[in-house]
Amino acid sequence: MPSRYLNFRCSVPWLILLLILLLETLFLLRFLFSFPDVSDIYSPPSVSYPEFQDVNHMVIFGFGFFLMVLRRYGFSSTGFNFLLAVLGVQCCVLVEDLLVFLKAEQNGSGLKSLAKAVMSTTAVAISTGAVLGKANPLQLIVMTLVELIVFHVSRCINRTFLKVPDSLSLMHVHLFGAYFGLAVASRFPGAPPGLDKNRSTPQSELFSVLGSVFVWVFWPSFNSILAESKKEAVLNTFFALAVSAVTAFMLSALTSRDGKFRMPHIRSAVLAGGVTISYTAHSIQQPWIAMILGLLGSAITTLGSHCLQRCFNPALKLQDTSGVHFTFGLPAVLGAVAAVVLSVVRKGIDTQWSNLSSLGFTTFIDLAAFCQTISAALITGLITGFLLNTKLLKTVPVSKYFDDQFYWEFPHLSVGF
């Protein structure tokens, strides 16, 4: 194997150093030329530290362990997720400051801005799951920067032209991350049939389910941290998650040949309720609606895993390593449709169905926001996929897919041990 494939010393450390110098310089300019708003000093912050801590745990611990599904890719799954998260948060803060400077976004308090940055990096964690084991650190860093910039631009379009609330536009993170990652993954060659490193073991599945449990526990804070009705958002998210977890166990036993539970079903479907309810958690007044959405989200995840892996993915020659399409993509689409339907019903009841033209325009705007998000994710994801597979970014040979030893040092495997 050529040495240029086996050593990233001349690329990854220098790219990280360049990013650190650039980020630190921009942060220095940010604090030198920006002044806090007086209202932010004397008013209590809208985001508390416990809420921010929950979201931070969800991104670092939850997704870090959730991605440990491959038997020989545990170091890279957790390590690269942590690296991309901390780089992505700094990038998000600076991009948001740039939008504030351009008058495209309203200024917010420091902790609120940081919380939105951490939530935005969820898109990167989801997209990483689609290309898990195929993209090298250099490619992942470039993908992170491009994805977060495009995601903020997409949110800005939704807020400016389609008048989507800021907190609701951030809930597109699951939709954007899933389809951006799938578009990028479509540009990577598939693993050969004889390569068995892309499978899991009981130990790796156990760690991955542990990550799902972390995400499950902290998801109510994720959905409620920016919501005006925090109590309703927490309650609805918990009910949706609880029903999706119960449904996951039920459908796992029903769809298995021998009637036993399957850990991949549990790992993915227990999270479907949190994704599906993310758009409407703050506005639902009856908990039974949240429970129905959790049930439907879990069902579409469990049943979709069979259809996508056996029919859809082979036809498109797409390898979704950790199943982000049926774990986050399909439940996000279901949640988007549910948000439109509930919005139409709620506004129709309020106006007694007397102003159908206004109701139709509102529906069109809601659908346009979701379509714009998916379109931006797919188009820019395809372009990013082509960019990542250039020789400049040192494409990983297929034989080295899904292998920690390509990136990490294993002293016990070295000569002399």
UniProtKB/TrEMBL annotation:
Chief site of localization: membrane
Domain Ammonium transporter AmtB-like: 47-391
Alphabetical UniProt keywords: Membrane, Transmembrane, Transmembrane helix
Residue ranges crossing the lipid bilayer per the database entry: 12-35, 55-73, 80-102, 140-161, 167-185, 206-227, 233-254, 288-312, 324-345, 365-388
Record family assignment: Belongs to the ammonium transporter (TC 2.A.49) family. Rh subfamily.
Record's keyword annotation contains RNA-binding: no
GO CC annotation: plasma membrane
Topological type in the membrane: Multi-pass membrane protein
Molecular function GO terms recorded: ammonium channel activity
Gene3D superfamilies found in the cross-reference section: Ammonium transporter AmtB like domains
Subcellular location: Membrane
Protein name: RHL protein
Pfam families: Ammonium_transp (PF00909)
GO biological process terms, semicolon-separated: ammonium homeostasis
